Amino acid sequence: MSLSFKIGQRAGRWLATLALLGAVAPMASQAGQAGQLYMPEIVGNSVAVIDTATEQVTSRIPVGPTGKRPAVLAATLDGSKIYVDNFGLFPATVSVINRRTNAVKTMIVGSTPLGIFTSMDGREIYVPEVGFTVEVIDVATDKIVRKLHFPDIPAGAMSGPDGNLYVSFASGFLGVYNPQTGATIRKPIWVGGVGTFWFSFSKDGSKLYTDSISKIGVIDVTSWRVVKTINTNDAGTFSIANPGAFTSTLSPDGSKLYVTRWGSTGVLVIDTQTDTVINTIPTKGQTINVVFSGDGSRGYISDLGTTTTGYQGALGDLLLFFNIIGPAVGVGSGQVIVFDPQTDRQVGPAIPTRGGPSCGVWLPSI
Questions:
Q1: Which CATH number do you get for residue 107?
Q2: pLDDT computed for residue 355 by the predictor
Q3: How confident is the model at residue 12, as a pLDDT?
Q4: How many structural domains does the chain have?
Q5: Do 231 and 190 touch, CB atoms closer than 8 A?
Q6: Where are any strands of DSSP class E within 154-295?
Q7: What is the DSSP string of 299-342?
Q8: Of 349, 347, 341, whose CA–CA distance to 295 is shortest?
Q9: Burial of residue 175 (number of CB atoms within 10 Å: 0-12, 13-18, 19+)
Q10: Suppose 154 and one of 22, 128, 196, 245 were both cysteines; which one would form an S-S bond, judging by CB atoms 3.0 to 4.6 Å apart?
Q11: Is residue 25 situated within a structural domain?
């Protein structure tokens, strides 16, 4: 065999290898849409800023010294400001991040906020609080402009497609109210579980999904009744030890609902046509929230990490909640899992975070 033939063979192999590398290189990077994922880190008392094109944490914004335990974020419609629900017990606070400067100011509120939500028109922020109150913040002035009082502890307060204020309560009831006066529009109904911190509407607004300890409720909005409940354990059966449904997020096309669980690992995927569980996305620890990029090409799961797997069932759900917003004993680092909503499979390595990654927001660059 001639020397020139051997060299030709090697050159051919090198060219083939280079061609293969060129073909797989775009898949290896798995870059998401350019923008920023703002992720509150409860234990870290910070908000991590993740570049979703490179999937790297580029900075961290501290919410202290007054703000403690940042847990839920809500953004203005123009993306210029982010409001942070701080779960710290005392003092009760909401922080406001100016995205152009990263400056943070902190507001004292009446009692510990349990969530934070932007109104449909973007002019106000709703803050449900332990003290039987939803406080309303004016986005233009960052001042509390009114307080709506309830006989139960409001855990979630969101604008519905009709512009009314839907409020879920710690007892597991959910009602509809006038966002200006607090007057009852639809009397509260029980959703099938307790501790209802979150709910989501179907894309056409005809159904409402509630997230409670041990149950996911499906409400027909027109008839205002629960038409189905979905169990949260892997077997699809009910027991008092079922893990809690914590938050839910509708897929960009409206075909699927992603439900995070406390008391077990993994994110449930529900088909919104049949209202049945069709998949579970595996995670290392218990999960808090799912966020999508603006173009819907990537989903981001807040994974609390392996140190949270010991909290099992509904009781574990409660114990973990009070531990993570309080002493945070034994709560280690978390991560953000990146997945493709088309396949529901993880894309690339997870993004490491400080302890307690929670309810973030994705925003385009400003």
A1: 2.130.10.10
A2: 96
A3: 44
A4: 1
A5: no
A6: 154-159, 165-169, 173-177, 184-190, 194-201, 207-213, 215-220, 225-231, 244-250, 256-262, 267-271, 276-281, 287-292
A7: EEEEE--GGGTT--HHHHHHHHHHHHHTT-TT---EEEEEEETT
A8: 341
A9: buried
A10: 128
A11: no
CA distance readout (Å), 264 to 140, 142, 230, 314: 41, 38, 16, 9
Residue 81 corresponds to which tokens in the numbers above?
Answer: 């400001």
According to DSSP, residue 242 is labeled P
Contact predicate 326/89, CB 8 Å: yes
**248 Cβ contact list (under 8 Å, min separation 6):** 198, 199, 200, 209, 211, 216, 257, 258, 259, 260, 290
- Whole-number Å distance between alpha carbons of 239 and 313: 9
Domain membership of residue 115 (yes or no) is: yes
User: What DSSP state is assigned to residue 272?
Assistant: T
- Tell me if 288 is assigned to some domain: yes
Q: What global pTM score does this model have?
A: 0.91
Q: Where are the alpha helices (DSSP H) in the chain?
A: 3-29, 313-325
The label of the residue with tokens 């210029």 reads 80
pLDDT at residue 30, rounded to an integer:
65
Answer yes or no: is 18 within a domain: no
pLDDT mean values, one per 10 residues, the chain (366 residues): 40 39 39 95 97 97 93 98 94 97 96 97 97 98 98 98 97 98 98 95 98 95 98 90 94 98 96 98 97 98 96 89 89 97 96 98 96
Q: Domain residues for 289?
A: 48-363
